């Protein structure tokens, strides 16, 4: 058990600092095709080495460069691709290719004493912008399924979002092939929107967005809530329906077709317009219809039938009132005189 623990600890330390015979190198390193990396000693020598040799072991074994004193002899494949710091023994490698993935070893000699160290490099191709392909064709809510597939490449992770929110598996949503595909079955109206696939590796990231259109409806057909109007008013009835694509509308009045726009306008309503109005919505893709009804009642504006009195009529009323008052006063005076006689 103690031996296993020792080997595990040693492995972790080597993976982190790449130490061997006293030289510690940075790494493990990751690089991108066409990019560059720099191998450096964490504990560089205190004096300039007498000799430096960098070697590579991957799909082949080769000496990258050997430097002794003033001389520097890079291998042909590395001419123009490397820079060696003779003081610190660090090495920069440019123009990376996938074949540069492997193990890198440095050996330095100071006063006849040789020290060695090694590290590793993994070169990744930059991820390309994924192409999202939809397998579903024309999608109808409740009846269709769709699979979104992202592109290939040197990809470490793929992540899917809808409207900026992460997607996770559900009873209708599944992922496969390390998130390469996203499947929804069946699709529903709420699945409309923008789906983004983000791909990453250790050196790059890219994303692509696909708009998913699910045809549905018509649902929730209703007519603007207007049931009692006054004769002579201008009336506008509006029909609304949830539908993708937009539904075609037909108006019926007491069983007879009377319009096909979202609004039915009556400039001056009268009693002949009272009755039942029906709006029918039709979706040309789902081939579904739905209707709503509204009763319209028309009342009279009685204030429109009352006419003001003419000036002569008003004068007659005043004169009549005055004459009436005089008769009443005469009767009262006659009664008083009769009372004195008696």
Structure overview:
The structure is a single chain. The chain folds into three domains: 2-124, Immunoglobulin-like (Sandwich), CATH 2.60.40; 133-212, Immunoglobulin-like (Sandwich); 217-302, Immunoglobulin-like. 14% of the residues lie in helices and 45% in strands. It has two helices and 28 strands. It has a six-stranded mixed beta sheet with strand order 3-11-10-5-6-7, covered by helices on one side. It has a five-stranded mixed beta sheet with strand order 22-28-27-24-25, with no helix packed on it. It has a four-stranded antiparallel beta sheet with strand order 12-14-18-17, with no helix packed on it. A hairpin with a 4-residue loop joins strand 17 and strand 18 (181-184). The radius of gyration is 46 Å and the shape is rod-shaped.
- Give the CATH class of the largest domain: Mainly Beta
Label the CATH architecture of the largest domain: Sandwich
Q: How would you classify the helix and strand content by structural class?
A: mainly beta
Mean pLDDT: 83
- Assess the beta-strand content as a share of residues: 35-45%
Low-confidence parts lasting 5 or more residues at pLDDT below 50?
Answer: 1-20, 305-342
Q: First CA to last CA: what distance?
A: 148 Å
Taken in chain order, the helices and strands follow as HEEEEEEEEEEEEEEEEEEEEEEEEEEEEH
Global outline: rod-shaped
Rg over CA atoms, rounded to whole Å, is: 46 Å
Helix proportion range: 10-25%
Tell me the CATH topology of the largest domain: Immunoglobulin-like
In order across it, which strands form the biggest sheet? 3-11-10-5-6-7
Total of domains: 3
* Largest sheet report: 6 strands, mixed
> How many DSSP E strands?
28
């Amino acid at each position: 058990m103690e031996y296993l623990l020792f080997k595990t600890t040693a492995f972790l330390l080597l993976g982190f600092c790449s130490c061997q015979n006293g030289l510690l190198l940075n790494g493990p390193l990751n690089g991108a095709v066409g990019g560059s990396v720099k191998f450096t000693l964490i504990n560089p020598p205190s004096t300039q080495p007498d000799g430096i040799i960098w070697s590579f072991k991957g799909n082949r074994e080769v000496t990258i460069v050997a430097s002794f004193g003033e001389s520097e002899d890079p291998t042909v494949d590395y001419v123009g691709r490397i820079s060696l710091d003779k003081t610190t023994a660090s090495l920069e490698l440019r123009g990376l290719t996938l074949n540069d993935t492997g193990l890198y070893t440095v050996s330095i000699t100071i006063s006849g004493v040789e020290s060695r160290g090694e590290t590793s490099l993994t070169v990744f191709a930059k991820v390309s912008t994924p192409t999202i392909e939809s397998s579903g064709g024309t999608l109808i809510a409740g009846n269709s399924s769709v699979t979104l597939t992202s592109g290939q490449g040197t990809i470490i992770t793929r992540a899917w979002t809808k409207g900026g929110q992460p997607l996770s598996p559900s009873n209708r949503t599944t992922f496969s092939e390390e998130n390469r595909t996203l499947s929804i079955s069946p699709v529903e109206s709420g699945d409309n929107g923008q789906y983004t696939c983000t791909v990453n590796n250790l050196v790059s990231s890219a994303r692509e967005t696909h708009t998913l259109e699910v045809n549905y409806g018509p649902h929730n057909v209703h007519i603007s809530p207007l049931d009692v109007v006054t004769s002579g008013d201008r009336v506008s009835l509006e029909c609304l329906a949830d539908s993708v694509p937009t539904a075609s509308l037909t108006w019926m009045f007491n069983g007879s077709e009377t319009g096909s726009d979202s609004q039915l306008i009556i400039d001056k309503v009268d009693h002949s317009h009272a009755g039942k109005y029906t709006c029918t919505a039709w979706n040309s893709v789902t081939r579904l219809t739905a209707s709503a009804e509204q009763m319209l009642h028309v009342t009279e504006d009685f204030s429109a039938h009352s006419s003001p009195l003419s000036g002569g009529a008003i004068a007659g009323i005043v004169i009549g009132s005055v004459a009436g008052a005089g008769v009443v006063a005469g009767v009262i005076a006659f009664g008083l005189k009769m009372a004195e006689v008696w």
